[in-house]
Design a protein that fits this description.
This protein has 373 residues and is of the alpha+beta class. The protein has two domains: 147 residues, no CATH class; 210 residues, no CATH class. Helices cover 38% and strands 13% of the residues. The strands form two sheets. Strands 1, 2, 3, 4, 7, 10, 11, 12 and 13 form a nine-stranded mixed beta sheet that branches. Strands 5-6-9-8 form a four-stranded mixed beta sheet. It is globular and about 60 Å long.
Length: 373
């Protein structure tokens, strides 16, 4: 189990974005111009890092602000720089303790903006700049000491697992796990062979494919039950913003569960059970990482020989997702399409053991609640 530390939280893009969002959340709660300045400067500094026409868009954002003295529009000024962003963030007053609601809200943003089919968004790129590290670190220290995040580095709680299904497309398949994994391996292999034959070799070509590195979604997928609703309700990469879902308790499959707590665990899994996807993910993962590598992901059909399930801790997600993970011999991987605290069950035995409880939230956002509570 990896230790929950401030340094660990800042290892990966998702952890850095979490901390930046918590800073911006604190800025929104301030009633003087320091909070307004922080939101404005950080937003425009991030836009300057957007791919393609990011600088033009930054100027459009700036044009909506009037000069405080009533003079020329702010659009005539240059977008904020990382140094300027760091300076305004230094003036943000942080709370003594970060509560569960603020943590979940910031984590939800970090998950929602994760990209695997195009370059990182501007705020992700801004958060990676060394000028911001000091400010992100003071937030990371609060997160690491927060009781609400104390379980983020823990292994799976096998006695508190639930499924969260927004619609029938998320229902587990009636086929055996072995059949689903075999079909997954055959499909990915066929896709890789087709990409090798037909796909452009230039990584910058305008092409996209199957960029996910998760086991088949038709398997049982669970997360931990929580008072505010399981993370599977809303912390979903590439989701559709569902506002309701049915939650059921699950009895887990027998056998060991592999824990992914960071890049080293993911690399070890890819090293033991490599599945080559170099051609089929080349263009998407190049956009994410800026590198053209011999890409691999775990062969889930063979991982099932070793374990009944694979669990990605919240800290493991924050450290690992949307970054290049080195394997060896020039090969690399990306943990893509996963969700925080997700467990995929690779063997039969996981089953729903309760009637469904419908959870919902307001259409304009807000907290989840059980409809019968």
């Amino acid at each position: 189990m990896s230790e929950m530390t401030a340094e660990a939280l800042l290892e990966g893009p998702r952890g850095r974005r979490l901390c930046l969002e918590l800073l911006l959340h604190a800025a929104e709660g301030m009633t003087d111009e320091r909070g307004w300045d922080a939101s404005r400067v950080v937003t425009t500094a991030g836009r300057a890092f957007e791919p393609d026409d990011g600088n033009r868009y930054a100027r459009l954002i700036l044009s909506s602000f009037e000069d405080a003295s009533g003079g020329a529009p702010v659009e005539e000024r240059a977008p904020g720089t990382p140094s300027e962003a760091a300076a305004v963030l230094a003036a943000i007053v942080l709370p003594a303790r970060i509560d569960a609601g603020a943590l979940r809200g910031a984590l939800a943003v970090s998950v929602d903006v994760a990209r695997y089919w195009q370059e990182p968004d501007g705020l992700d790129a801004l958060a990676a700049q060394p000028e911001l590290r000091t400010q992100l670190l003071r937030v990371a220290e609060l997160v690491a000491s927060s009781p609400a995040a104390s379980w983020w580095s823990e292994p799976i709680d096998r006695w508190s697992q639930v499924t969260s299904a927004p619609d029938e497309s998320w229902a587990p398949s009636r086929e055996t796990a072995a059949e689903q994994l075999q079909r997954w391996a055959e499909r990915r292999s066929a896709e890789e062979q087709r990409a090798r034959r037909e796909g452009p070799s230039e990584p910058t070509a305008n092409r996209s494919g199957d960029w996910w590195s998760v086991p088949p979604n038709s398997l049982h997928r669970t997360t931990r039950a929580l008072p505010g609703g399981p993370y599977g309700l809303d912390l979903v990469e590439d989701g559709f913003g569902w506002d309701s879902a049915e939650v059921r308790q699950v009895s887990t499959a027998d056998g060991p569960v592999i824990e992914i707590t960071g890049p080293k665990d993911w690399a070890a899994l890819c090293r033991r059970w490599p599945f080559e996807v170099e051609a089929s993910v080349r263009h998407d993962w190049y956009r994410v990482t800026g590198e053209d590598r011999a890409w691999v992901l775990p062969d889930w059909s063979r991982v099932a020989h070793e374990a009944a399930g694979v669990h990605l801790s919240v800290l493991g997600y924050l450290r690992t997702a949307t970054r290049l993970v080195e394997i060896d011999g020039g090969s690399a991987s990306v943990l893509a399409g996963w969700n925080p605290d997700a467990t995929y069950w690779l063997r039969d035995g996981a089953r729903e053991i309760s009637d469904p409880v419908r959870w919902s939230r307001p259409a304009d956002g807000g907290d989840w609640s059980a409809e019968n509570s």
